[in-house]
Amino acid sequence: MNRLTRTAALAAALMATCLLAPGTTAHAASGDWLSLTLTRPGTTGGDTRTALLLCDPPQGHPKAAEACAELAAAEGDFSRLGDKDTLCTLIYAPVRARAHGRWHGRQVAYDRTLGNACELRAETGDVFALEG
After folding, report:
1. H/E element, 108
2. In sequence order, which residues have a C-beta less than 8 Å from that of residue 26 and are 6 or more positions away?
3. What is the pLDDT along the chain (132 residues), one digit of tens a residue?
């Protein structure tokens, strides 16, 4: 089993545990979750990081509180995240950001490849800050 498959299996198990465990929060029980994947395709082996973001309470992500606050302010709309006025260098070091799940009863699907980490941060704020 490769690392990505193991990570996906772990995320699925964590999600099932959070959704089915007695005493889970109302937010988790309602099915609001985002599975996040960040890949740097240009690196040796294609460095990939994943997280399962839950927001009540914020967990499963190095900056869960910040990511949840930003998603709440944007009402889960990825086009409203980040700081579009950020100036980034033109160094090409691509990053691919993917998200899928449910946010306040809506299906969420996001998949973009950006030129570098600065562009990703400008586009998505802390949602894909998976490196701690």
Report:
1. strand 106-114
2. 56
3. 444 444 444 444 444 444 433 333 444 445 579 999 999 886 666 689 999 999 988 999 999 999 999 999 999 999 999 998 999 999 999 999 999 999 988 999 999 999 999 999 999 999 999 975
For residues 79 and 92, give the distance between their C-alpha atoms in angstroms, rounded to a whole number. Answer: 22
pTM of the model: 0.73
Per DSSP, the residues of 1-51 read: --HHHHHHHHHHHHHHHHHHSTT--HHHHTT-EEEEEEEETTSTT-EEEEE
106-114 contacts at long range (C-beta below 8 A, 24 or more positions apart): 106/76, 108/34, 108/76, 108/78, 110/78, 113/41
CB 55 within 8 A of CB 75: no
Q: Is the dihedral of CA 89, 132, 112, 3 positive or negative?
A: positive
Structure tokens at 56: 């009540």
